[in-house]
Specification:
- It is a single chain.
- Helix content is about 60%, strand content about 5%.
- The protein has six helices and two strands; from the N terminus they run E-E-H-H-H-H-H-H.
- A two-stranded antiparallel ribbon has the order 1-2.
- A hairpin with a 5-residue loop joins strand 1 (about 10-15) and strand 2.
- Helix 1 (about 25-45) runs antiparallel to helix 5 and helix 4 (about 90-105) packs parallel to helix 6 (about 155-175).
Length: about 180
């Protein structure tokens, strides 16, 4: 089987349960933003200098894949999806809250953060890149609210909001000299 199915040549893509949608559909935009976030986290994983960064990426990437499944579920088919796949929930948000607490306890500085990469640490710049991609995904999903395409799971926005906070903190941690306590 080839990756080049040619099914998207006319500007359509597959959703779950055999449904198709325009590649310009708002849900597909949100799905793409989360996919980009997953790829941005992959860059962070290969450049991470701190174990906290790699551990977070390894834990979050499968959650993002599950989130993409929720986004690829056509409105009205959520129950069908839920039968086989757990939804992103309050437990995942709580885990990110705990991560914020742990990272803040390490200490950070606000110096230079508005200029990603200024510290000369690739992993810090990549954590900042993942953070802005996360914010874009969050905005794409927020744009769906109140429309026929909204995502019924309210934990998704909370999760992405908290994840962007964690990524900001990881960027600051990655920028610290390695001689500083982890």
């Amino acid at each position: 089987m080839s990756i080049a199915t040619k099914r998207g040549d006319q500007g359509q893509t597959d959703l779950l349960f055999g449904q198709r949608a325009s590649k310009a559909h708002p849900r597909v935009h949100a799905l793409g933003a989360v996919d980009e976030l997953n790829a941005a986290l992959g860059l962070l994983a290969v450049s991470a200098r701190r174990p906290q960064s790699l551990e977070l990426v390894r834990r979050v990437q499968p959650q993002l894949v599950a989130l993409m499944g929720e986004l690829a579920t056509p409105p009205g088919s959520e129950e069908k999806y839920r039968v086989r796949h757990p939804l992103l929930g309050a437990d995942e948000v709580a885990q990110l809250d705990r991560e914020v607490t742990l990272l803040e306890a390490i200490g950070f500085t606000f110096e230079g953060w508005v200029f990603p990469g200024q510290a000369g640490v690739l992993a810090g710049a990549q954590a900042d890149w993942a953070r802005v991609v996360c914010r874009r995904a969050e905005r794409c999903i927020a744009d769906l609210e109140g429309s026929a395409f909204s995502v019924p799971n309210p934990e998704i926005l909370r999760y992405l909001n908290r994840l962007s906070d964690v990524l900001w903190l990881l960027a600051r941690l990655e920028e610290k000299p390695l001689s500083d306590a982890q």
